[in-house]
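Sample entry follows:

_____
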Amino acid sequence: MSVRVLIVDDDERERIVLRYVFDQIKDVDLVGEAVHGLEALLFCQEKKIDLVFLDIAMPEMGGLETARKLLEMKEPPLFAFVTARREMAVDAFELGALDFIVKPIDKQRVEKTIERAKERIAHKTFVEEMVRDRLKERIDFMLQRYKNYEIFSSKLPVREKGKITLLNQDDIVYCESQGKKVYICTREGNGYLSNYTLAELEKRLDNTSFFRAHQAFIVNLDYIKEIVNFGEGSYILHLTDGSKNIILSRSRAKQLRDKMGI
């Protein structure tokens, strides 16, 4: 992976030194040079820059102010300071500097800065790819549901005693398999017996809120108050209204932790 860098220093001799150092380091692409902060900002707006090497004392706009302006960009580059002003190190790192290199420039120190930049860029790329993959999975899931004509109303129809009751999914606390019927409990404490199977309810209920905790239970995650260790990898889910303690099977415990980020 090549790191695209920009040198910003009003002293031509220092730029020459950095240029020479970069020529000796693998995976460095020197995109350009600037003599002050304003020129650097324009450069970063026009070209893709991964890492900016900034002097601190420069005319028109110094290095610290330039770094602040870089941070305001939509996709700010990383930045490191290369300066003779040791006393500015604290200010530099408070701004989030990748490194603070004191002149005269040491090649090994610059190499370490480049390696650190590679790690940051790789991590950022990994996170962005993970977010894209999760988003793609969600979109694919929704498209598949449309394809299979499985997009239903947010209300769940329950037939009983010659009428159909439409339950708001948000009001459903849990669903429990009871023989050939499924018992649906709502937050008002009302219970309904349904002819749905738990497998059918898994498809109809919003899977961002509902979770199959056990072979016999589907639970609304919004109503879980506590997850208590029950021994041997099993857990008990305590609900906010105290209406039911639900067993979380060992095989599904990891899925729940992943889903809830715990």
